Amino acid sequence: METKKEAAPAKKAGLWQTVKAYCRLYFVDAMSAMAQGLFASLLIGTIISTIGTQTGFVMLEEIGNFAKSMAGPAMAVAIGYALKAPPLVLFSLTAVGSASNTLGGEGGPLAVLLIAIIAAELGKLVSKKTPVDILVTPSVTILSGAALAYLFAPAIGTAAASVGSLIMWATDLQPFFMGIFVSVLVGVALTLPISSAAICAALGLTGLAGGAAVAGCCAQMVGFAVISFRENRWGGLVAQGLGTSMLQVSNIIKNPRIWIAPTLASAVTGPLATCLFKMQMNGAPISSGMGTCGLVGQIGVYSGWLSDVAAGTKAAVTAMDWIGLLLICFVLPAVLSLAIDFGLRKLGWVKDGDMKLDL
Predict the structure, then answer these.
(1) How far is the C-alpha of 149 from the C-alpha of 102, rounded, in Å?
(2) Which run of H or of E encompasses 139?
(3) Beta bridge partners of 281
(4) pLDDT confidence bin for 2, thresholds 50/70/90
(5) Most confident option among 27-31, 48-52, 207-211
(6) How far is CA 217 from the centre of its chain?
(7) Is pLDDT of 1 > 90?
(8) Contact 32, 24 (CB under 8 A)
(9) Which of 318, 333, 215 has the alpha carbon at shortest distance from 275?
(10) pLDDT exceeds 70 at position 50
């Protein structure tokens, strides 16, 4: 009798662990991989084509456009890789990604994420189960993914785009409060082991809301880089300032108070970006969630300026634009985070060694 009673809680614990593992696989690992796929196609393509346009090097512009056109397949393959899909499933996901991203429209990345996961899992179910695996596995993966794309991608894309449009509309309407909300929320997402870049890409977050998102991400990355300088020196400055503040997650778990300084800094820089400097991010939406990682957020803002000037919606890139970009992305996050961290150390909430990284 006792064995049966003990087995029930153990079974529940096992089920809970399984659910947690799948949630992490689909909503953390797959999303992070999707962001990398976007980075390796749409984002890097935008950077290359922008350089080509500015230098008059037509071939670079064309190469960038080729890379951008592969965003759907790149995302789907990256997701399949994160799910440890067998080779035939992985390669077949290129067609699924292309269909989902195209039919999903502005919300294509979210459609790719959801549909590629299902198609990959269906492909894995039949992989190496028949003598004609080379025909069955690609057929199941592509046909199931394409069917789902035709049935659901437009609706998923419209829903994602609508949410993104709502956030951007609200930010235009209430730039102060939404500046705080978007900046803090996206900045926190950047530091957590989820992909802020994928979230921004899925929602198509641009405009003032995109500018607030960039501000929040920069506050986290630059903030942690400077307040942990005494522990991590130049290696930590570069790893966090140009890499990711996600490196501090284990330290945040040990002492959540170390997160206060960069988060409060983002609550200040967000509304300054939206209200004072009117900083908009009109480049690729993924740039909104990248912050100072490889200076992608700043390149996105700059490429957006150029696009706006070319479209006639912006007269020219002004000195105020550059001052705002430098202050919001670099100067203010560093100064504010240092000042707040100084106060926290005086209170004894943060101590030397709390932000030490194993570099």
Answers:
(1) 9
(2) helix 133-173
(3) 207
(4) low
(5) 207-211
(6) 10
(7) no
(8) no
(9) 215
(10) yes
Cβ proximity of 110 and 104 under 8 Å: yes
Q: What count of residues does the chain have?
A: 359
> With contact defined as beta carbons under 8 Å apart, do 109 and 202 qualify?
yes
Better-predicted residue by pLDDT, 4 or 27: 27
Q: What percent of the chain has pLDDT over 70?
A: 96
Q: For the chain, how are helix, strand and coil distributed in percent, rounded to 5?
A: 85, 0, 15
Farthest CA pair distance, the chain: 80
User: Is the four-CA dihedral 72, 78, 83, 85 of positive or negative sign?
Assistant: positive
User: For residue 350, with 0-12 CB atoms within 10 Å meaning exposed, 13-18 middle and 19 or more buried, which class applies?
Assistant: buried
Q: Residue 261 and residue 229: Cα distance in Å, rounded?
A: 14
> Is residue 11 very low, low, confident or very high in pLDDT (cuts 50, 70, 90)?
low
pTM confidence score: 0.78
Under 8 Å between Cβ of 44 and 102: no
Give the pair of three-digit tokens for residue 281. 């991010």
Three-state SS letters, 313-335: CCCCCCHHHHHHHHHHHHHHHHH
Q: Is the pLDDT of residue 218 over 70?
A: yes
